[in-house]
Amino acid sequence: MSDPAADPALAFTAATIKPRRALAKMGIRLPVLRLRGNPLLWKYLPLGLVAQTLIEHGLVDRKSVFPSPDVIRGPGFWLFQWQDRPRNVRAALYEWLNGEWNRYGWIIADSRRYLTQWELEQSAVAPEWVASATALLRVRNTLAMNAGLVPWPTLHDGFPKTANHEIVDFIHAVDQSLDRIQDTLRHILLDRLVRNECTDDERVEAVQLLQRDYDDGRWPRAVADLNEACGAPEPALLVDAILRSLPAQP
């Protein structure tokens, strides 16, 4: 039998059992969420799913949960409109909401500030991926500083480090997402180069960026990606290999 702790999908299902039962007693069905993206981030989704369900059924005032598009508040600020529902059911669901907020709320709150506009890993349009990567990087650095994983830029150089495994897991998941976005952007860049869709200046800048990633060790699949996009390059400097593999400019 699978262990929910080791299976993110099972862990998500287990986390939604209690609210699903409580909502069912109110005559409300909790929607089935299509899990996408990094599985390490799925455990942060149940709270938002339940909040949105309560809002859509008129049991919570939306503005009290989301005072602005990029801000989410904890259940203690929510204006509930469910006085006609069974008291024991309300109490059980509120207890669950508070428990989820106490575990993950500060991560969700800081993340939502930057990620509201971006549904990651759904589009291969370069500008959207760049914006997503920028948003993710801001999330990562903000949460890391708030948790004391890196020094504050001013006044708090001695801020203690934290051993909170939740924030470490979250930042690890964000780092993985950033790596995937970088890989996708490189593929888009190589495809544009091969198709001659760059100006001369863009071509030079693109090659310099690829060379930098290769030299810094941030492009471990460089040879395989070049083989796929351009044909196998000879063992020479990566810049020369790319330039020799590309069609000549008209």
Index terms:
about 250 residues, mainly alpha, 2 domains
What order do the helices and strands come in, and which of them pair?
Blueprint (H helix, E strand, L loop, with lengths): L7 H8 L1 H9 L19 H12 L5 H4 L21 H29 L10 H22 L17 H30 L5 H16 L6 H9 L7 H8 L5
Helix pairs in contact: 2-5, 5-6, 6-7, 7-9, 8-10
Describe the 3D structure.
This protein has 250 residues and is an all-alpha fold. The protein folds into 2 domains: 108 residues, no CATH class; 120 residues, no CATH class. Helices cover 59% and strands 0% of the residues. Helix 2 crosses helix 5. The longest helix is centred in the last third of the chain and has 30 residues. It is elongated and about 70 Å long. About 8% of the residues have low confidence.
Compute the number of structural domains.
2
Q: What is the number of helices?
A: 10
Strand content: under 5%
- What value does the Rg take, in angstroms? 23 Å
Q: What is the H-and-E element order?
A: HHHHHHHHHH
Shape: elongated
Total number of beta strands = 0
Q: Measure the end-to-end span.
A: 62 Å
Residue stretches low in confidence (pLDDT < 50, at least 5 long) are: 116-124, 151-160
**Which structural class should the secondary elements be placed in?**
mainly alpha
